[in-house]
Design goal:
Order of helices and strands: EEEEEEEEEEEEEEEEEEEEEEEEEEHE
Distance between the termini: 31 Å
Strand content: 35-45%
Low-confidence stretches: none
Helix content: under 10%
Shape: globular
Largest sheet: 8 strands, parallel
Length: 319
């Protein structure tokens, strides 16, 4: 609606399609490259290149009221500018500093994201804000040499929809060669939202689940539909449903696999996820502390819930 916040056609169409726009100067409030928005079914986006995006996302797919939509063989090449540590040169030196961007941002049921390539996103390579039967498979996400970096390569973040029934994250290949001090990848694959300030959400959206108050150690037994003006958000695998997480390979992230803020009532099928050479990134919270904790490079971390073969460590800071 433009700066006057009136949908009158004067100065309109400057803003974002994304729900996080709550501060006018935030990158979510600037237009990204391309968006599909609404209730349609059967949309196929394929064989295109989206490059040099500035803010928000390279490709948005917000189809909460549709199903059977596909993103296939799309390349997202360099979007936004990562939020670097002090003294680090920006990778996109055009004056729009801090204008970070996802590669792909999706929300809705029945979305398949497969065989795509995302190069140098500056926020998250492929992020789902929730939806049943979401399939993210056989994609390649790369952070290249230099001051390129991102918070996560693939993320399942239930900002909008908590039910993860039928979701699949499988066969993806993630590599980070970004600079240890001025770039790199914080988390390779991030399932759950607690890395992001503990997932403490104001004015939660319908369809979200969580606890009614926020704390460093929320009680998973209190998780239910978000109501009121505050909710500490969780991703939920309901009874008799499954989340398939298998055959992924992550190389060179600060934490290659991070699961935090997940309620498993059904099945969480975690198989053959390969972690190679985790290494330091420009993750300031890891170096200087987050709620009194610091951490070095780690293969796999899970907290709420604890999982076999994962390090149990609370990480509530993305920066």
């Amino acid at each position: 609606m433009g700066s006057d916040q009136i949908g009158n056609g004067v100065g309109d169409n400057w803003g974002s399609w994304l729900p996080e726009c709550d501060q006018p100067d935030d990158p979510w409030c600037s237009p990204g490259n391309l968006a599909f928005d609404g209730g349609s079914s059967g949309i196929v986006v394929h064989d295109l290149v989206s490059q040099q995006g500035e803010c928000g996302t390279g490709l948005a797919f917000d189809v909460k009221r549709g199903t059977d939509n596909i993103i296939n063989n799309v390349t997202i090449d360099t979007v936004g500018d990562h939020v670097h540590a002090n003294g680090c040169a920006n990778t996109d030196d055009d004056g729009d500093y801090g204008g970070w961007s996802d590669g792909m941002t999706i929300e809705g049921s029945g979305i398949t994201v497969t065989n795509n390539t995302v190069i140098n996103p500056s926020d998250i390579g492929i992020v789902s804000f929730g939806g049943k039967n979401t399939i993210i498979s056989n994609n390649v996400i790369k952070i290249t040499e230099g001051n390129y970096g991102a918070f996560a390569a693939i993320a399942i973040h239930p900002n909008g929809l908590a039910d993860a029934s039928g979701d699949k994250v499988e066969g993806n290949i993630i590599t980070s060669e970004g600079d240890d001090n001025c770039g790199g990848l914080h988390a390779g694959i991030n399932i759950g939202l607690h890395m992001w300030g503990g997932a403490c959400t104001k004015d939660p959206l319908p369809g979200t689940y969580g606890t009614p108050s926020c704390s460093a150690e929320p009680d998973p037994e209190l998780v239910g539909p978000c109501m009121g003006d505050t909710c500490q958000v969780y991703l939920v695998v309901p009874e008799d449903e499954s989340f398939i997480f298998r055959n992924n390979t992550v190389t060179g992230a600060h934490i290659n696999y991070l699961i935090e803020g997940l309620i498993i009532k059904g099945q969480f099928i975690d198989e053959n996820n390969i972690s190679l050479s985790p290494r330091q990134s420009d993750w300031e919270a890891a170096h200087f502390g987050c709620e009194g904790l610091t951490w070095g490079p780690l293969d796999k971390v899970a907290h709420h819930p604890s999982l076999p073969d994962y390090t149990d460590l609370r990480i509530h800071c993305e920066r």
